[in-house]
Design a protein that fits this description.
5 helices
């Protein structure tokens, strides 16, 4: 994987992580989500949810380009692990979620795995 391809993949992972954080915040601001038409309509009025959904679309377009030019066996594990790591750190920082020692150890293992996959 070239540096440019990795940069594009990293950007897609960042956009997807930010999108998930925005969607979560939008759901929280809506007071949750009731599985009904009224609940969905209320949720769709949340600007953060709409922004997060839009970023998901942008990340998907970048992902299509990555899939068109890179090996799936390399790019998918990188994308998922980067996204997971970024979402976890963002949830701790922006949503005040707790970081347990087990979660921290898991993130460290993921970072080692990202490095191994990126070099392979």
């Amino acid at each position: 994987m070239t540096l440019g391809a990795f940069g594009l993949l990293f950007l897609a992972a960042v956009l997807m992580a930010v999108a998930n954080l925005l969607i979560k915040q939008g759901i929280l601001q809506a007071g949750g989500f009731a599985f009904s038409v009224a609940g969905l309509l209320h949720l769709l009025q949340q600007p953060m949810l709409l922004a997060g959904s839009s970023l998901t679309g942008v990340a998907a377009i970048l992902w299509f380009r990555i899939l068109a030019t890179q090996k799936l066996s390399t790019c998918y594990p990188l994308f998922v692990s980067l996204t997971y790591s970024l979402i976890t750190v963002g949830a701790v920082y922006f949503l005040q979620e707790k970081m347990s020692p087990q979660k921290l150890l898991g993130l460290a293992v993921i970072v080692v795995g990202i490095t191994a996959v990126a070099r392979g």
